[in-house]
Amino acid sequence: MLETINIKDFALIDHLQVEWTPGLNVLTGETGAGKSILIDALNTVLGGKAGPGAIRVGAEKAYIEATFKVSSTVASWLKHNELVDEDPSVTTVAREITKSGSRVRINGTLVNHSIVQELGELLLTIHAQHEARTMMSPQYQLDLLDSLGDANHKKILDKVRLLQANRRELLATQKELNGSEEDRLRKLDFSRFQLQELEEAELIDENEDTDLDHQQNVLAHVAQLETLVNGAYEALNGSDKDESVCTVDLLQKSLADIEKASRFDETLLETCTLLQSSLASMEEAASKLRRYASTLDTDPETLTSVETRLGVLVAIKRKYGPTLKEALERREILRIDIDKLENSQSRIDQIDAELKEIETKLQSVADDLTQKRLKLAKNLSQLVLAELVDLGMERCKFEIAVTKLNETGPSGQDRVEFVIAPNPGQPLLPLSKIASGGELSRVMLAIKTIFAHADQVSTVIFDEIDTGLSGRVLQSMRDKLARLAKSHQILCITHQPIIASVADNHIEVAKSQSADATHISARLLDADQRLQALAAMASGQGDEEVSLNFARSLVQQANQLK
What we know:
- By secondary structure, the chain is α/β, with parallel strands linked by helices.
- It is 56% helix and 19% strand.
- Among the domains are: 1-111 and 458-562, P-loop containing nucleotide triphosphate hydrolases (Rossmann fold, 3-Layer(aba) Sandwich), CATH 3.40.50.300; 207-322.
- The strands form three sheets. It has a six-stranded antiparallel beta sheet, with helices on one face. It has a six-stranded mixed beta sheet with strand order 8-12-13-3-14-15. A three-stranded antiparallel beta sheet has the order 9-10-11.
- The longest helix has 47 residues, at 344-390.
């Protein structure tokens, strides 16, 4: 149940806080006073679309915060999503809209819009007078009917959607494979040519070109390398041709002298250790230089071979790259494509068999879904008729027609259409062809009353659903709203005094303007203010005695109704 909404710098509202009660909350006020902005703000805080245009002119950001007393269903959802507040019976949803985007928090935790929209569906449902027109869509009516189904119904519907998706994928593959034989042969020939070129390149390692680049650089400078490395080796370890003293010999002599000296001064032992380590490093370096020099390939043919191979790889990368990794991947793709093209008829036969199997399953599941929809349609029709009787349409006929289609779609093989005969002697026809605006409003109220109980939402919002109604029909709608308010919190925007008279909480919205600003306010009316407001709604003059007496009679009737 909605308890409070706090709005700052949203649309025309600079700052407004409204408190709500259980039962029927009525919002009244002049046309354009800003009543619908309150509902827009509530829809926005629960994940509705809102961009920078929602920010009040002159402000940097808009802020909306709504507090709800939660049901056990909502409390379980909050716990499952780890969004429980210190008080688990209350939850707060806040949204901040800036010129660069918006952020939503549930009990202080930042969440994405899909999460808050999911919560919104559990908290409330909003119905506007213009929404009645959307009810004329067969798809909307089908979705409504399916939403009343139990868990097994939804499981069957999901199975239909999965099978249909698999069928659509197989049909697409079948269409591709059933291309002309000429196209198949052309594709096969070109793929074979590309694969042969890649296989002749004998690609193994995706880093081969990098390794060869390094090898080419070494081979191109092998003479310099040989001279430099041998020179470094001889400086360290001496030469067989030259008996001059080398670095290792000098280091060995130095070590021998310091070892003798350390017999007289132990502080030289540390220096001995350093010299021993240096000598070992020198000998290891000399050994590595000798081994490296022995591996140098001075054969000019080797360089020619490497450069030839690099030329092959450059050509391959240019056509199938830009790297060898992509070329290797392309080779595997070509092998798969060629296999498909060479064995296309076998694959076509396989797909045909799979399609037959899926279509058999799909038909069976779709038939099962149809039977369940027929039962749901019969039950919902009876419920709607009972509600319509309460709304003054005692002699109305209403049915939900379920028609089998030739083709199965994602929703099955059924077309659902609500048909109605508002008056005796009229044939049953679709809502779009026979229902007036007032009849549509009553049908919608009847359906939404049923779904409000089925969905177990605590709060139901009606935005001018009574537009165009009068007389006994309006009284019937008043009575229906009053009864619904005993089990749900109702928020109702109305211009009808007869509807406003049954309010448990009457809020009047007003708009005032100055030379450079517009201000929207909302106040909770006491008993006297409420009479004045009802009288003004009835005649336009709240202080006339006749209007006041009429308002008193409406309140008296409402009290008797309650």
